[in-house]
Amino acid sequence: MKTILFATGIFCFMFVQLFFVQTVSAARIKDIAKLNGVRSNQLIGYGLVTGLSGTGDDMKNSLFTLQSVNNMLVRNGITIDPAQISNVKIKNVAAVMVTADLPPFAKPGSTIDVEVSSMGDAKSLAGGTLIMTPLKGVDHQVYAVAQGPLTIGAFSFAGKTAKAQKNQLTVGRIPNGALIENTVPFTIGENGTITYQLENADFTTADRISKVINQTFGQSTAEPTDSGTVKVTIPRGYRSRIVDFVASVESLNVETDSVARVVVDERTGTIVMGKEVKLSTFAVSHGNLSLVVKETPPGPLQPNPLENGPPAPAASQPASPPTGEEGGELTVLNMPKGVSIGEIANALNSIGATPRDLIAIFQAIKASGAMQGELIVL
Questions:
Q1: In angstroms, rounded to a whole number, what is the distance separating the alpha carbons of residues 168 and 270?
Q2: What is the pLDDT of residue 162?
Q3: CATH 3.30.1360.40 domain range(s) in the chain
Q4: Is-contact 250 236, C-beta < 8 A?
Q5: CA distance 286 to 22
Q6: Looking at the domain 26-37+187-255, which fold is it?
Q7: pLDDT tens-digit readout, 192-217
Q8: For 79-237, where are the alpha helices, taking DSSP H only?
Q9: Residue 298 has what pLDDT?
């Protein structure tokens, strides 16, 4: 039996609640793996936002904005004397970068959202309208064209002695602001196979996915090639119904597995831990806390004189509690063999340990080699 002993002084700590879900980690295949090749593609473009209320780029400092305005005017049949272009003063225009994600299987004529961000020294993009901007992929081909009014989601008010601002004024969004003009070709089921890539590579999870698919569609249908890839052969009955087959595969439930891991963020006091993290025998002293986890071997009991047989094992007894630094109140908790770090955290949290106390204790436990799992400090 493993026993946890605490000696604690007077605490005026802030409590943090840790939630541990003891449910089976079953998930659909579509939530833990993706079809190889079925992915979005990033698009980018350079454009101009007009209609600003004097909050655009300063043409003396942002020469590329002035050049872009001149090029746009030339394309529309308006020519400015090159000797006079430096005298042009426009405060209602801002140069921006436009970004978007082209989803898989997107067809020409459909729309996607775009993000617009200032490149120069514009003070605000509120009230502006993006002029028609081609969006290109990594291959320099145009896949969409963006245009429309921006939504900022921010405001700024200023007086003589005070100023109030919420969110960024130089970043905006245009819902459905880009019209798709070209698509990325992709064919599912080439050579009669499809490949799934796990979001989190794990040999156990890949093997379980393969077994679940084989149990449903027949042996040798799926085979894991490594910890992050499962190759699936399309059955003959589904060769003409590939979408139906993919939908059936992705709806299958698989019990996932993962590496035992504890993630702590000292800046925010956040602690996330997996249920598989286990602890060996150890002892930690931290401030007013004394923590001891050890295994107490059971002792023999004298059998009943009227019965025959060997002595029965005795129930484990908690060891004598150590004396705390400040002689505070003593808390003794009995834990079953194989106590997890989640139970340790719950016990510590119940007596008022702060997140910093928990993080320091976990780091010490890991450094001593008593934690069977990975500790990640952000």
A1: 27
A2: 66
A3: 26-37+187-255
A4: no
A5: 29
A6: Gyrase A; domain 2 (3.30.1360)
A7: 899 999 999 999 999 999 999 999 99
A8: 203-217
A9: 54
**Token pair 């992929």: residue:** 137
53-99 tens-digit pLDDT: 888 888 777 888 888 888 888 888 888 777 777 677 788 999 999 99
DSSP conformation class of 313: B
- Is there a contact between 136 and 44 (Cβ–Cβ < 8 Å)? yes
Closest CA to 374 of 258, 261, 259, 257: 261
- Take residue 221 and report the two structure tokens written for it: 């249908």
Residue of 188, 204, 203, 192 whose CA lies nearest to 232: 192
Work out the burial of residue 230: count CB atoms within 10 Å of its CB; fewer than 13 is exposed, 13-18 middle, 19 or more buried.
Answer: buried
The closest alpha carbon to 116, from 47, 68, 64, belongs to: 47
Query: Helix %, strand %, coil % for the chain, to 5?
Result: 20, 35, 45
Higher pLDDT, 109 or 84: 109
Q: What is the pLDDT of the chain when averaged over all its residues? A: 78
- List own/partner pairs for 329-333 with CB under 8 A and 24 or more apart: 329/8, 329/9, 330/5, 330/6, 330/7, 330/8, 331/5, 331/6, 331/7, 331/8, 332/3, 332/4, 332/5, 332/6, 333/3, 333/4, 333/5, 333/6
Whether this prediction's pTM lies above 0.70 is answered by no
CB atoms within 10 A of CB 226: 11
Q: Per-residue confidence at 335, pLDDT binned at 50, 70, 90? A: very low
Query: What six digits make up the tokens of 15?
Result: 């409590």
Contact 378, 52 (CB under 8 A): no
